[in-house]
Amino acid sequence: MSPFLTGMKRLFYIGVFLLAAFEVANVFFVMPMPGSQRIQSIDLAYLLYRFRWPLRVLFGAMIVAGALPEWRSPGYRRYLVPLFLTVLAMIAYVMNFILPADKLFLAPQSVVMLPAERNMVDTARLVVGVKLGAEARAYPLQFIGYHHQVRDTIEGRPVMVSFCTVCRTGRVWVPVVDGKTESFRLVGMDHFNAMFEDKSTGSWWRQATGEAIVGAQKGKTLPELPSDQVTLAQWLRLHPKSLIMQADPAFATRYANGFDYENGASRSLLTGTDTASWHEKSWVVGIDERGQNKAYDWNRLRRETVINDAVGGTPIVLVLARDRASFFAFERPDSATRFTLRGDSLVDGIFAYDLNGLRAKGPPLRRVGASQEFWHSWQAFHPGSLKY
Fold first, then answer.
1. pLDDT tens-digit series, residues 181-197
2. What is the pLDDT of residue 1?
């Protein structure tokens, strides 16, 4: 057999191996595969994805060039061609139609919002609540935890309500880039945090920070809207006229039925909770204020209920409501003012404020952004964070 013919046959197997390895790598780096989320691989993952079609054409050409010479080989070797092609087709199918994030977690087909009197969602459920102007809306974690993002309009403004179950953080973003309302799809995750790809440039955006981390929009950040992670019952006490997102019937079997994730009873490898403090899967409340970050242990917050502290020179108060699940953070009027909790009112000895930060007369307390997250997530995206 001529060296040329031998080389062409080898080309077939090299092409099959390279294409199979590429299809696996294209998913491995952006999904929670063993070890994939603990390495700095985002630039490589993005490069592979952006050049996926040129690479597929190249490896496919190698396969085509070597397939016929190998098929003409005597004996059993000719049957290796259909065998290898079948295995390759199976790998490609799984990696492109089963395992990608946007195939596992689909966007809702419709977003139905109902008032409290028609609501079908258990009021013990946790929600991400948003209030703009006179309009308040609540999005149950039970639903947005599956969808990862829900698009809606509040007070005429487009909003993107997002939640990542693997880092346990909800964020509400204004999906506007360079003055244009942008569309996003779930592309995978980086360091256990969901990533979205914008339709216009193909840039990848991190859910926890709203920042584009690779692509043409790298360095830009989506505007964030204030939001609360609270029980629906608590949200309705504060906003009785709120609308509540209802289950999309098309995904009824995909939504979590139990409360294990929401109350911390889950022991799942990715979404479970470590009940000890300051472990990777422990809960913290993170506050980012004036360039300084600080994390508060959830167990300590549950013991103390009210924490008077300072972040970035700003005196703050972090409070846990009576339901032991809803939390709020405000700027204190000054460092000398210290709050206690009386029922569901913050009291400083003179004035009483509700958990919206409002009092009967006088200025309200300024809201401070606070988010509940797994400790590993807060650390990953706030590497210089202080610990309370």
1. 999 999 999 999 999 99
2. 53
The CA angle 261-253-269, to the nearest 5 degrees, is 35
Matching residue, tokens 């939504």: 255
Q: Which residues of the chain fall short of a pLDDT of 50?
A: none
CB proximity list for 280: less than 8 A, separation 6 or greater: 274, 374, 375, 376
pLDDT in tens, 103-125: 999 999 899 999 999 999 999 99
Q: What is the DSSP string of 27-64?
A: HHTTTT-TTGGGS--HHHHHHHHHTHHHHHHHHHHHHH
Considering the entire predicted model, what is its pTM?
A: 0.93
Write out the DSSP string of 356-383.
Answer: TS--SSSPPPPB--EEEEEHHHHHHH-T
Please choose, from the candidates 208, 86, 89, 217, the residue with its C-alpha nearest in 3D space to the C-alpha of residue 149: 208
Query: And the tokens for 252?
Result: 């009824």
Q: CA quadruple 270, 276, 279, 282: dihedral positive or negative? A: positive
E runs forming strands in 120-252: 126-132, 135-140, 149-154, 157-164, 169-173, 176-177, 180-181, 184-190, 193-198, 204-206, 212-214, 228-231, 243-245
The interaxial angle of helices 80-97 and 3-28, nearest 10 deg, is 20
Long-range contacts formed by 10-14: CB under 8 A, 24+ apart: 10/66, 11/62, 11/63, 11/65, 11/66, 12/62, 12/63, 12/65, 12/66, 12/67, 12/69, 12/70, 12/81, 12/84, 13/66, 13/70, 13/84, 14/62, 14/66
pLDDT of residue 272: 96
Q: What is the pLDDT of residue 5?
A: 64
Residues 320, 328: Cα–Cα separation, whole Å? 7
Contact 32, 269 (CB under 8 A): no
pLDDT at 2: 61
